[in-house]
Amino acid sequence: MNKITLKKLIYNSYLKTALTSILFIEVVLVFLYFSSNNKLVNATVDFVLEDLKLSVIDRVNSTTSIINEKFNNLENLSAFLQNEHQNFFFYKDNITLDNKPKFDFAPNGMYYKTENNGGSSVVVSKNTKIDDDLKDKLIKTELFDKNFKSIINNNKMLDAVYFNSHDNICRYYPFLEDSFNIFPPDIKMENYNFYYEADLKNNPSKGPVWTDVYLDPAGKGWMISLIAPIYNNDFLEGVTGIDITLNSIIKTLLDLQLPFDGASFIINKKGEVIVMENKIKTFLSLKDEEKGGYFLKDKIEKTVLFENKINIFDYENKQFVKLLKNLIDGGKVFDEVVLNENKYLLFSKKVNITDWFLISLIPENQIISEVKELENQNLSIGYFIIVFIIVFYFIFFIFLYKKAKDFVSTINNPLSKIVEFTKTLGNKSEINSLEHCGIEEIDSLNDNFNNLAQELDKRTKRLIQSESKRKENEKLANTDQLTKVYNRRFLEDFSSRYMKIVKREHNTLSLLLLDIDNFKTVNDTYGHDVGDKVIKLLVKRLKTTVRDNDIIVRLGGDEFLVLLPSTPIDNARKVAKKILDVINSLNKFESEELKFTVTIGSSEYKKTDVHINEIINRADNALYKAKKLGKNQLI
Questions:
Q1: For the chain, how many structural domains are there in total?
Q2: Residues 201 and 84 in one domain
Q3: SS3 state at 231
Q4: Peptide bond before 204: cis, by omega within 30 degrees of 0?
Q5: Quick one: 108 and 129 in the same domain?
Q6: 361 dihedral zone (left: phi>0; alpha: psi -120 to 50; beta)
Q7: Predicted local distance difference test score (pLDDT) of residue 254
Q8: Which of 196, 220, 245 is the C-terminal boundary of a domain?
Q9: Does the first or last residue of the chain, that is N or C, have fewer Cβ atoms within 10 Å of its Cβ?
Q10: Which of 548, 523, 524 shows the shortest CA–CA distance to 533?
């Protein structure tokens, strides 16, 4: 490729050909601009309308698809809870819990859970007999709370998860303070749609079902529930439900951000308005109506269903009503309608799980007015271009001819310095600066390059510091601060990867679960400082006993886990025996407050195990049995 200097480029191109060529082109373009402007405007209107139609349909479909997907996910969660709770009642007699919450009678006669232990609130109707069997059920159903909490924390759309029993027990998460003051003292679950709509009469399929919109007895407003019956053989033990407030659904449905001053409303198949934007009332010339309400000064003793006085099927424009009914019956998603002498684009989409329809209206005159405004702007721009071309090219031709030589030398030197500067950018430890040349644009470019060089140097240093800090923080996050061994977070991250390796390579894996005997007595007798010394002494004994590739993890408090890769259970128990022997033999050399023993539970990987917690649970059961046998031993 032949190269040319900047000086020759300016002389040859600008003076000989550029001006005349550009002038000719600009004249032709202006002529074409004005001659095609009218056709362009008409084509733009058609294009905008078609593009708007596709865009809004896509937005409506996307919004309803999001809701449908969320509802489908909730149905899967409901089925999971249903299966878990039915298994619970089938095996209830085999379940034991160490941590038992406190219950007491409220002044209004209800039996309730008195303290928030991080789980659900619980209330029992004052008419329910409180006997040992019921108390046992109240305690054992605490097992439900772990999944209740997980579901609420991971689903922003949800308001509550609950279990209501046939004997009028309400287990409700999240915890409600003074829950006995929220529900009627003689609460009957069979009076509420979130219970009776799941029974055999109303739900013979026994699967999860959606309720109608109702007023929440817990005071959370209007909502719908996804409920699932819990059967023990053919006996209905109760109903497990997931609450979704009406506002959370409406916010998602109406967050369409429609262009051209569009607006939306939601109706059910009966034409009753669920929610309506104020602009829709303007489109339809509707007056605000006084709506019936429900005041929460009294407790809700039975289902209060949602009602609305506005029914769009009663609207005076019968053509519009007929069009809406056809859209609902036929599933059509787009049409056009005239309201009060104004033409609107109408879009509709059904929310599959409910009988709701999302209806959107966009005034066509808003679209046309913006296009007409664009046409006027184009004409103004065209006139301005003509004047500008005449004046500019007359002056510019004279100026460029006289100043070409000065222009070349003025810009060529600083540009050459910039070229040289960029060649060494990032390669030198010492940063040089470009000097100003007096041309504002080039000076600004010089400043930008100077700033770029300095910023590059700063960011490189910050990146090095940030990476070092990140590695240090990662190490601290995975390490127990007291003992300097791994913590539970490390175990969760490591075990998820390692379990896959063990399963893929058909390897063996055993673990030991250790618990310091009577550790609470040590803390109570000698104080927590001595307790910390005992914990660190245990870690020291473990490190001298296990292999270098074995992993020691502090699960919390005085509970430790030793992960033994590629170790069968027999060898793991030998290691556990060695740990007991080492601790017992070295106790004779320690002062009285530092003497301690441990109890160890062991377990190994099975082919059916998916998560490390399954192995830990078996080890925990073994530890529990060992504790019952007298401590300071292993199973």
A1: 4
A2: yes
A3: strand
A4: no
A5: yes
A6: beta
A7: 64
A8: 245
A9: N
A10: 523
SS3 330: helix
The alpha carbon of residue 546 and the mean position of all alpha carbons in its chain are separated, in whole angstroms, by 42
Structural domain of residue 362, as residue ranges?
249-367
Contacts of 593 (CB under 8 A, 6+ apart): 522, 525, 526, 530
Do 108 and 214 fall within a single domain?
yes
Residues 301, 388, single domain; the answer is: no
Q: Is residue 457 part of a domain?
A: no
Task: Say if residue 350 is exposed, middle or buried (CB neighbours under 10 Å; 0-12, 13-18, 19+).
Answer: middle
pLDDT at 340: 86
Confidence (pTM): 0.49
pLDDT for 334: 82
302 and 226 in a common domain: no
What gap in Å lies between CA 452 and CA 446, rounded to an integer?
A: 10
Q: d(Cα 583, Cα 542) in Å, to the nearest integer? A: 9
Q: Which pair of structure tokens corresponds to residue 400?
A: 């460029």
- Blockwise average pLDDT, block size 10, the chain, 635 residues: 66 64 72 70 74 81 82 91 94 86 94 94 95 93 94 90 96 93 92 92 93 80 89 95 82 74 85 81 71 43 60 87 84 82 87 80 80 73 77 74 71 72 63 74 79 77 72 77 92 91 92 95 93 95 94 94 95 96 92 94 94 95 94 92
- The span from the CA of 553 to the CA of 236, in Å, is 44
CATH number for the domain including 360? 3.30.450.20
Burial class (CB in 10 A: 0-12, 13-18, 19+), 247: middle
The answer to the question of residue 453 being in a domain is no
Q: Which domain-ending residue is among 245, 273, 296?
A: 245
Q: Which helix (H) or strand (E) holds 416?
A: helix 364-424
The tokens describing 536, both together, are 């660190």
378, 342: one domain: no
Fill in the DSSP letter of residue 634.
B
Beta carbons within 8 Å of 601's beta carbon, 6+ residues apart: 512, 513, 619, 620, 621, 622, 623, 624, 625, 626, 634, 635
Read off the tokens for 583.
Answer: 């601790």
Cα within 13 Å of Cα(132), Cβ side: 0
Residues 260 and 388 in one domain: no
Give the span between the Cα atoms of 59 and 553, in whole angstroms: 50
